[in-house]
Amino acid sequence: MSTRDYYEVLGLGRDASDADIKKAYRKLALKYHPDRNAGDMAAEEKFKEAAEAYAVLADADKRVRYDRFGHAGVGGGAQGFDPTVFTGFEDILGGLGDIFGFGDVFGGGRRRNGPQRGADLRYDLEITFQQSAAGVEQTIQIPRHETCGTCSGSGAAAGSSPTQCGQCRGTGQIRFQQGFFTMARTCGACRGSGRVITKPCTECGGEGQIERQRKLSVKIPAGIASGQRLRLQSEGEAGARGGPAGDLYVVIFVQEDERFQRDGNDLLHQANVPFTALALGGDIVVPGIEGTHSVKVPEGTATGTTFRVRGKGMPDVSGRGKGDLLVTVRGITPSRLSRDQRRLLEELHATLSPESQADEDKGLFGKVKDIFG
Asked: In the predicted model, what is the mean pLDDT of residues 275-302?
């Protein structure tokens, strides 16, 4: 549910150089790449997590925003989001796989004309503070590519089927000798797919996919915070040539509430009260997520004192109880006084003079109570 710190994901400190970031990512990418861990979903998640961290920290502007604002600083707008960054080992190695044919060194390099997993998508969803506290179910609309129903994703018109590319013989690459090395480049005839469609589908134009708007219902749990994300499995882009669909990540952004600040599951509230209320003591009423709460303020309370109302904070997003409401009182001084108010304050001021403090017959707060009734 919550996103780990990107520096922690890559095992780096915040002073890491660009070279350190790139080196750390390549190490993790080679270790957890799906081509080396077929069917291992845990490894796939670690690969995505490392790639997402690299995509932010390797970009100078995004890194500055992340360092300053955290995960909330690098979000923005519904957009296509492919966390793999590098699609194959040849990309991780900086293109050496394409040039020297190292695609199979790490075990079963991916054939470009085979099934491919669809891209993941990201959708940023803004909700109110009250919705984050209570939980809500929202309907969102996602533009995405889906498998063409007319040709079932083949790209070929009815009654026909793709044929093997005669130029590359279905490999998607043209190989040639240059000195001691065997070089390879993407086949121009089939654009690396290894297949040629002579009669394209009229619905998708031979692409095998069409773009559609899809409506989805998203259940947002109570207590969710800005920057946390929800994963909707297989709701991303459709896979190519029969490959599985990607996932949809819904990233939550919570609107600010002028009454509260959030600190984990605790809510912080500043209550501005007359300075006399701090001197005399009594009960004050403060807002809560649901209704209001009464807080007892002892007489002689200093401004800046914080009171805890247990169990009245944010619910834990995993369902384990609630945080607390922390109320900090701040005494306010009136900017304008009526004649009577001024007279009463002058009398109070007189009682607070050094000569009056020596009077042992009556305590300070007894005199304050006398003056203010």
From this structure: 93
